[in-house]
Amino acid sequence: MDFSLLRNIISRYCAGEENWVDSRTVYIGHKEPPPGAEAYIPQRYPDNRIVSSKYTFWSFIPKNLFEQFRRIANFYFLVIFLVQLIIDTPTSPVTSGLPLFFVITVTSIKQGYEDWLRHKADCSINECPVDVVQQGKVVRTQSHKLRVGDIVMVREDETFPCDLIFLSSSRDDGTCYVTTTSLDGESSHKTYYAVPDTMAFKTEQEVDSLHATIECEQPQPDLYKFVGRINIYKDKEEPVSRTLGAENLLLRGATLKNTQHIFAAAVYTGMETKMALNYQSKSQKRSAVEKSMNAFLIVYLCILISKAVINTVLKYAWQWSPDRDEPWYNHRTEIERQRHVVIRAFTDFLAFMVLFNYIIPVSMYVTVEMQKFLGSYFITWDEEMFDEELGQGAQVNTSDLNEELGQVEYVFTDKTGTLTENNMEFIECCVDGNVHIPHAICNGQILSAASSIDMIDSSPGGYRREYEDLFFRALCLCHTVQVKEEETVDGIKRGIHQGRPTSFYISSSPDEVALVEGMKRLGYTYLRLKDNYMEILNKDDEIERFELLHVLNFDSVRRRMSVIVKSVSGEYLLFCKGADSSIFPRVVSGKVEQVKAHVEQNAVEGLRTLCVAYRRLSESEYQEACHYLTEAKLALQDREQRLAQAYDVIERDFVLLGATAVEDRLQEKAADTIESLHKAGIKVWVLTGDKMETAVATCYASKLFRRSTQILELTKKRTKEQSLHDVLFELNRTVLRQRSISGLSVDCLDFGLIIDGATLSAVLKPTQEVSGHGNYREIFLEICRNCSAVLCCRMAPLQKAQIVKLIKSSKEHPITLAIGDGANDVSMILEAHVGIGIMGKEGRQAARNSDYAIPKFKHLKKMLLVHGHYYYIRIAELVQYFFYKNVCFIFPQFLYQFFCGFSQQPLYDTAYLTLYNISFTSLPILLYSLVEQHVTIDTLRREPSLYRDIAKNSLLRWPVFLYWTCLGVFDAVIFFFGAYFLFDNTTFTSNGQLMTTNTQMMFGNWTFGTLIFTVLVFTVTLKLALDTRHWTWINHFVIWGSLLFYVIFSLLWGGIIWPFLNYQRMYYVFMQMLSSGPAWLSIILLITVSLLPDVIKKVLCRAVCPTATERAQTTRPCLTRDEREEQEEEVHEKLLSGSVAELTPLSFRRSYKGRNTDSTLLHLGAAETLSLHSSSPFPQKLLAHLAEGGRSDLSSLSPYMLRLSGAGFAYYAPGPETPV
User: Fold this and answer.
1) DSSP string across 434-480
2) CA dihedral in degrees (162, 166, 168, 171; nearest 10)?
3) Surface-to-core class of residue 138, CB atoms within 10 Å of its CB (0-12 exposed, 13-18 middle, 19+ buried)
4) How far apart are CA 826 and CA 829, in angstroms?
5) Does 415 carry a binding-site annotation?
6) Average pLDDT for residues 859-865, to the nearest whole number?
7) What is the secondary structure of 380-414 as a DSSP string?
8) CB–CB of 791/754 below 8 Å?
9) Mean per-residue pLDDT for 927-942?
């Protein structure tokens, strides 16, 4: 008996695993296969419900609480709260429970609201209407009810509800056009193809009659990979098998375009769709500040435990005497006497832990979270980082790393689309050794092909040759460009002008569009792909048709693409284009040396080059190629490898035709940005897949390399001449020798390293140590540390991530940043500490997977040097200040135990204990951490070197931390002993209360504690006010308002404002304290003494050894942007109105440096000067007018516009001669 069927069923339904097999079988329309076919096994797949939310109604509370109490601080305070509930502690459980409850509640509300929004989004998607074919009719249902195997009808501009296999289309050629903007950001129309055997089914009845099964791989997240096979059953014949690939799979989230409707079968639904599989969250990144916070927290926890142990030991030492152990006013019960001393000691230890637990600032975590969340909006609101062309500004995908932007030491950047515009322009081509340069420039739109458009041939004799025709045809045919024709509302095609088509070319690759447009300008126009025939218009205005037989798609490993076409004469042609390194080894004839020399010359000039080759195929060779391709495409296992092998066999024995050169211009201000990053002490590495010559030219243009830079090469070419071991050691000796000779620091050495992908693989091989040649990684890192810039060319995406990981994990553990714009940059963006995506032309995958997204590379300068600088300064002050104010808060409580017999008596009232961190001192530091600007934005932008002052987490190092802690201890000692000694001169009254001899003020325990608490609140708040350099009305409101709130609350809590509170122990205490003159004097005196050391320390440091930031603070600030614009407008208006005399109270002086000078100073007043370049029309006319003696009448100059802030004009404000 065959138990295989039973075993399969048991395995599938009982094992609970769907990945038990590498493929799945889908029954289209849920129809069983005919008798005699494979066994029908109904399979269970998830429905089409999308779930992006984390919680349900029932799981929210337990799951959210579990996640929050995984944080050490929250768990610690929970333990303290439980201890207060269980044992008799000196403070109420409210003092720990209320802050903890506040923190947990605020976080829960925030996370619950975010999840509720996700639920709403999920519902809107899951309840979307969908058309399903059932029993020959189209039935409308909801999206979440779709099942694998359902036949779905999708209309134009509708979004695909799940992953579908394309069966048929309303278009006769069985194609449809799709945009995948929501998936990868590419707005271009992509072409998808229906299964050839089902493309004839046009109606729902015909589609419903289809009897077929689909065998495909299990769900996996790669958007661009799919392997499957469809088996179509016709009557009793053998099933017809057809291959399925990514061109047949319509992905959920994509949109149907330019097609009336399609029919498709659901193959992956719900959370198994490729889009849902890409939802998986990225690994959590933690900033250096967060790590420092945790380290400081551990130190304070140790201090807390030490305090509790010391007080417990001293308590029992104090109570060693019987009269102290059991005084007359506090007799123990019998149960307490019988309790073991160890248990009593442990209970007392826990009680002291509870008493001193406020040294751990639980509210700091909430404040930090709020600061990061609210602070991130400053990036999104920054108008200078808004790009008009894209219509988008900067985006923040995670706010957890804001301060990390101020700690970056290495920047890893892509080249194409990041440093360059990725806006390709065809420059020239070399055909059989002859250069052809088009004289027209096309900006994305195909112009009408007028007869005047021709080529300039620099070769002697411009006659047409066979190679030229083949070259131009190859570029017109070997691509995946689509032609988009627009029509007017009257139905007349705009795409026809003077008998020639004028349309837009669309492609996912800007290179291909540039090449096809370049051919257009050289006389060969690609018209369309229709019925699998490609049409081109040659120079003789004749339309040529080629049947497109196969497309061998481009991939990053082969670095080339090919097409097999058939001409009208029946000739089979294989056209191929690709990188020179992938074409030249496969060429057997052609002018290789001339073309290679031209390619190298173009690469040195920074142009992107491609080589073009062809091969004529005989009938037998074509059939053999078809056999290889069909066999590879039908394979369900290892299809990619088999296709690569087939391509390798087919793409050989080429005849070289020529090469193309396309320019990718440098982005605006890319060079200025890199130069500023260098000045800030940041090392910039360029990681690119381009050839070395092109990348080097770009590096020089972008000022990554300077002319004085000594270039070190670690390339495959050099390692062929010498062993890798010898090259590495030679380079290492070079940098170390130069370092020792110059005696300069590593940062001052101007070395540039170039390494290619092949050599990098050899360097990173883990078997190096075994070979006996030492550790190549360490030698390589040593060389890199001595280089100001590094270029890595010919890099695969995985190698980019490996480079970032190598630097990130080196012994210095530097903070790394990766920036790129394409899908090939995602790996390094995810690997780096901070990942920034550029909203470029290679899709939005990089922007979606990044921590931050910016429109252009130039915005990185402000992102790091301004926003990053501010974020780090603010949060560093926040963290240190929180620990400082908690030391000030709890250390007097520790000292007080020495004066109360270690009885665990609280120094402060319960309300003060509870509200100190929540209300009295929380808002000022939160606002400071949001709006503080220790130097102006213009100063940070103008002086990038200020970034070095905060490098390597300098404000959160242990010396700084110890200074803040010692300052807190000093202030706490002043608070306690100052109050103690000032009120030491007292006498006992008849009722046992303390009373000062001079003022008759009742001086009890709560008055003493309230006095200290008042000095504490005022001191820590004024300390923050002294640290504030950027004052706004909201700073004043929050700082002085917090102090006012404390006073009002104390009056309220003391029963002054609210008399019904007279039952509690603080009744009238605050008012009684304020009625004493010495109390006022002590408050003012203690605050002054507490703040004085920090003020003196700052003054001395600024005078003796000021930092660059402190020097920048002392220089006179420049005019603000608004002030500058106002003065420019005023001068402009007066110039145009002819009233210069109003601006010249003293004199109107003309100063010339000679006829050959290019600038003249026009003095408008005592200290106002205009610097005018005489090469401009306006200065020339102005100077001529002044030379003739003209003074106040400048009305003749009014047609000219004076731009004082533009290039060539500078405005000098009163004060230091500093250009703004």
Assistant:
1) EEEEE-----SBPPP--TT--EEE-SSS----HHHHHHHHHHHHSS-
2) 100
3) middle
4) 5
5) yes
6) 92
7) HT-GGG-BTTTTB--EES-STTGGGGGS--EEEE-
8) yes
9) 90
DSSP assignment string, 890-946: HHHHHHHGGGTTT----SS-HHHHHHIIIIITHHHHHHHHHH--SS-HHHHHH-GGG
- Reading the block at residue 37, the tokens are 């076919």
Q: Are strands 482-484 and 455-457 parallel, antiparallel or unpaired?
A: unpaired
Residues 680, 944: contact at Cβ < 8 Å?
A: yes
> What residues are annotated to the active site?
414
Q: What digits encode the pLDDT tens for the residues 866-911? A: 999 999 999 999 999 999 999 999 999 889 888 887 777 888 887 8
In three-state form (DSSP H/G/I as H, E/B as E, the rest C), the secondary structure along 19-57 is: CCCCEEEEEHHHCCCCCCCCCCCCCCCCCCCCCCCCCCC
**Beta partners for 743?**
none
- pLDDT average, residue stretch 271-286: 69
What are the E-state strand segments in 781-860? 789-793, 816-820, 834-838, 852-854
1178 touches 1197 (CB < 8 A): yes
Is 421 known as a binding-site position? no
651 class by beta-carbon count within 10 Å (0-12 exposed, 13-18 middle, 19+ buried): buried
Question: Which of helix, strand or coil describes residue 421?
Answer: strand
608 known member of a binding site: yes
Torsion 992-998-1002-1005 (CA) sign: negative
Alpha helices in 127-225 (DSSP H): 181-184, 204-208
Structure tokens at 338: 């019988």
Q: Are 246 and 633 in contact (CB under 8 A)?
A: no
Instruction: Check the annotation: does 32 bind a ligand.
Output: no
1200 to 261, 560, 1181, 1191, 1211: CA distances (angstroms)? 59, 55, 9, 17, 18
Q: 122 among the known binding-site residues?
A: no
Task: Give the helix, strand, coil percentages of the chain, each rounded to 5.
Answer: 45, 20, 35
Give the DSSP per-residue string, 860-882: HHHIIIIIIHHHHHHHHHHHHHH
Q: In degrees, to the nearest 5, what angle opens at C-alpha 1004 toward C-alphas 999 and 1007? A: 80
Position with higher pLDDT, 1198 vs 653: 653
Determine whether the annotation assigns residue 642 to a binding site: no
Q: Please list, in sequence order, all residues whose beta carbon lies within 8 angstroms of the beta carbon of residue 484, skipping any fewer than 6 positions away.
A: 189, 503, 504, 505, 506
- Percent of the chain at pLDDT above 90? 16
The 3-state DSSP class for residue 224 equals: coil
324, 332 contact by CB (below 8 A): no
SS3 assignment, position 783: helix
Residue the block writes with tokens 């320019």: 663
- Alpha-carbon span 822 to 801, nearest angstrom: 14
CA distance 545 to 561: 21
What number is the average pLDDT over the span 164-175?
86
> Would you say 416 is a known binding-site residue?
yes
Mention every residue, 6+ apart, whose C-beta is less than 8 A from residue 634: 229, 241, 243
pLDDT tens-digit series, residues 1138-1196: 444 333 333 333 333 333 333 333 333 333 334 343 344 444 444 444 444 444 343 33
